[in-house]
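For the sake of transparency, this paper describes our internal protein records without simplification. The tokens are whole numbers drawn from a learned vocabulary of local backbone shapes. One such record is reproduced below, unchanged from the form in which we store it.

. . .
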Amino acid sequence: MAIGNQEAIYPISVAAKLLSVHPRTLRIYEEEGLVKPSRKGNKRYYSNDDIAWITCLRDLIHQKGISIPGIKMLLELTPCWKIKKCPPEVRDQCSAFIDQSTPCWQAASSLCSQEFRQCRQCPVYIKAMGEVMKG
């Protein structure tokens, strides 16, 4: 049985080793709202999507010189329906599109977050950050 990219399987120590960072770095990203690992009791678990997203974050921070507040601002300015090019019939049903008072990645009840479980693990944002890094 294959493990899906969204399945949280890595404890923080393993995720930190995979990313070559200190576990505290992952906790900082979580405190800043840039990643939301799954919780099982008091333990954090990361998925392959989380690892890809954090890799992207690290590249933005260390290669592009973008600060954590800068990354958060980029996320706030780029709604997922524009990146994903949602058709109007899908976009118009999305609660993040209907109420744009909060960034779509923070809208836990949005259609996209229901489909992708969590916007912070959304392939749209993994791809979007890859596009930002290219530009």
